[in-house]
């Protein structure tokens, strides 16, 4: 035993001067690793952030194209948020949510409810997006149990969806490769088609494609039985699936089918909420729907502190309060539910959004979309799509057939590597490049970002031609 302690002490001393890259290779498990490198890899090391920029370990300044992970909405190094974090930690760093509460969480819940559509009026806080979706699904199960409908538990999701990494939330995912080696609650989930207009059948109009999606949804409910389906979970814009913007009217029609069949509509706004589309919530203000629940995370604190949550309809809570089971317990909670520091940061972040960031986003978003669209001039680019300050450049071998490149698993990484060298961090997704910069980005900075992305794609085309895998 003593020998083991001595060995660990010696090892610690030996690695004291080893840099972070070597420490990561020895001790850190990165998210979404491959078996061949798990626990033995290091990724790009970021040292600092300032505004829309980050600085890597070599001192290179990069535009933060993904805004961290769709989340650094008000930008890096905002002193207002850092100060609130410090002040709240010094006042109250933590309280147990099981039998105490704190003021910031109550005030934040009121302000969030004020921005939510319909009768969404109550907030349950979580630690992030995955736990927010997990909470919404567990609430659906509890709700139907209390109402005497234990068989009404199936969940409708879609191809291309991403809803999280916890067990139930990950079971909803519909992106390629997400579930290849992972288990899930497959018996609870029914997958529908992705609402991706770019991949609609050849020759089909947008209107016909919308009808196809709606008919598929309606037919699935009829085939399975509304008495068996508890919820539909959908992102207003499928973010990690490639910024899939649904056809006009699709979400409203799905909402009506859910309402007619007593299926809870859960709008997953982990990405689209808190400014990404120019509003605190996109469900009502952008898409004209009033869900039964909205999940959120990421931009609620601009990534400065882990926080997420679910906004729940007053109608659902009232039905529970009027049930014949007043002692039924929603046995769900997290150690960091309603964390005072996170809620305090979110309040200040919401101030910043309301005081100008939302208006700025609405002002520059059309320019952002128009400049990104110019990249369709490049022969490698099949489509540029997006909404608000989120966009995707999808690369294809052939515009007509829309076949992904032979090297589709590698193309996004190639573009990202070139862009990194040129001063831009990109979110590579197989054959796609996703952009979701901090909401404070200016027109001039958008020009810089798109210019670098154009050059990165052009260099990638040159590489592919030289290697003989693509002619263009």
TrEMBL record:
**One of the record's GO cellular component terms:** cytosol
Q: Which UniProt keywords apply?
A: Aminotransferase, Pyridoxal phosphate, Transferase
Q: Which GO terms describe its molecular function?
A: pyridoxal phosphate binding; transaminase activity
The cofactor required is:
pyridoxal 5'-phosphate
InterPro entries found in the cross-reference section: Aminotrans_3, Aminotrans_3_PPA_site, PyrdxlP-dep_Trfase, PyrdxlP-dep_Trfase_major, PyrdxlP-dep_Trfase_small
Q: Which family does it belong to?
A: Belongs to the class-III pyridoxal-phosphate-dependent aminotransferase family.
Q: What name does this protein carry?
A: Aspartate aminotransferase family protein
> What is the source species?
Mesorhizobium kowhaii
């Amino acid at each position: 035993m003593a020998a083991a302690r001595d060995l660990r002490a010696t090892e610690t001393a030996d690695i004291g001067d080893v840099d972070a890259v070597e420490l990561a290779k020895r001790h850190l498990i990165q998210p979404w690793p491959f078996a061949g490198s798990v626990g033995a890899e290091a990724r790009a090391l970021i040292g600092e952030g300032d505004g829309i920029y980050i600085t890597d370990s070599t001192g290179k300044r990069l535009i933060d194209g993904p805004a961290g992970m769709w989340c650094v909405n008000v930008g890096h190094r905002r002193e207002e948020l850092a100060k609130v974090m410090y002040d709240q930690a010094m006042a109250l760093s933590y309280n147990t949510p099981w039998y105490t509460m704190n003021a910031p969480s109550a005030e934040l819940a009121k302000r969030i409810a004020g921005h939510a559509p319909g009768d969404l009026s109550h907030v349950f806080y979580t630690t992030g997006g995955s736990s927010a979706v997990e909470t919404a699904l567990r609430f659906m199960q509890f709700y139907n149990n209390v109402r005497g409908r234990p068989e009404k538990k199936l969940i409708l999701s879609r191809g291309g969806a991403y809803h999280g990494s916890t067990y139930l939330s990950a079971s909803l995912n519909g992106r390629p490769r997400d579930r290849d080696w992972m288990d899930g609650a497959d018996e609870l989930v029914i997958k529908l088609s992705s609402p991706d207009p770019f991949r609609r059948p050849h020759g089909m109009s947008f209107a016909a494609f919308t009808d196809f999606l709606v008919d598929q949804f309606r037919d699935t409910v009829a085939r399975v039985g509304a008495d068996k389906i508890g919820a539909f979970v959908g992102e207003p814009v499928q973010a990690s699936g490639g910024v899939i913007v649904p056809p006009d009217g699709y979400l409203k029609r799905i909402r009506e089918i859910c309402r007619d069949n007593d299926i809870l509509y859960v709008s997953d706004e982990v990405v689209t909420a808190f400014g990404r589309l120019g509003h605190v919530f996109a469900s009502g203000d952008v898409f004209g729907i009033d869900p039964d629940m909205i999940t959120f995370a990421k931009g609620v604190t601009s990534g400065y502190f882990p926080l997420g949550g679910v906004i729940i309809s007053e109608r659902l809570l009232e039905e529970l309060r009027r049930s014949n089971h007043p002692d039924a317990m929603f046995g769900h909670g997290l150690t960091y539910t309603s964390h005072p520091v996170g809620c305090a940061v979110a309040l200040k972040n919401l101030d910043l959004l309301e005081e100008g960031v939302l208006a700025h986003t609405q002002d520059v978003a059309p320019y952002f979309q128009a400049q990104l669209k110019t990249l369709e001039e490049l022969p490698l680019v099949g489509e540029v799509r997006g909404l608000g300050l989120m966009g995707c450049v999808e690369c294809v071998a052939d515009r007509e057939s829309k076949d992904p490149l032979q090297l589709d698993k590698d193309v996004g990484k190639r573009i990202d590597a070139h862009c990194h060298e040129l001063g831009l961090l990109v979110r590579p997704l197989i054959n796609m490049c996703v952009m979701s910069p901090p909401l404070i980005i200016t027109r001039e900075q958008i020009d810089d970002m798109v210019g670098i992305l154009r050059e990165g794609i052009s260099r990638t085309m040159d590489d592919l031609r030289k290697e003989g895998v693509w002619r263009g």
